[in-house]
Amino acid sequence: MSRHCQVGSRFFRCGAPAIDSCQYCGRPFCAKHCYIEEGLDAVCTRRRCRAKFDDLVRHLDYKQRARQRNAVGLCGIEECGPHPSFECSLCHCRFCEEHVSKRMYPVRHGFVVVERPLSVCTWCWERRKIWRR
Questions:
Q1: pTM of the entire structure?
Q2: How far apart are CA 21 and CA 34, in angstroms?
Q3: Which of 10, 18, 27, 129 has the greatest CB tally within 10 Å of its CB?
């Protein structure tokens, strides 16, 4: 594997010495093309990789807030009230019927991806656009 930065266009790569490999695309990147490198997180400046990292940070914050609301018997959505009786199959937070829908969602079984009906909150449904690319 090349230990030179592979960020760039199809016909021109940076080529500077790599400092790490991106946790999302797996390609090496240099200090100039480093979006974040803290602890186990290493992300290059490619648009898709930045979007995934930023989404993950927002998602962890969303789950924390939803779980705090669930702990006191409220729906995970901040503007909503009590009676969360449905769980999102992806984030495992609880919501009222209005904020969870049965949707066909791609699930990996080994090397095969199949569509299965899952209960999914609106937040998790919208996130799939970033992670499916």
A1: 0.84
A2: 10
A3: 18
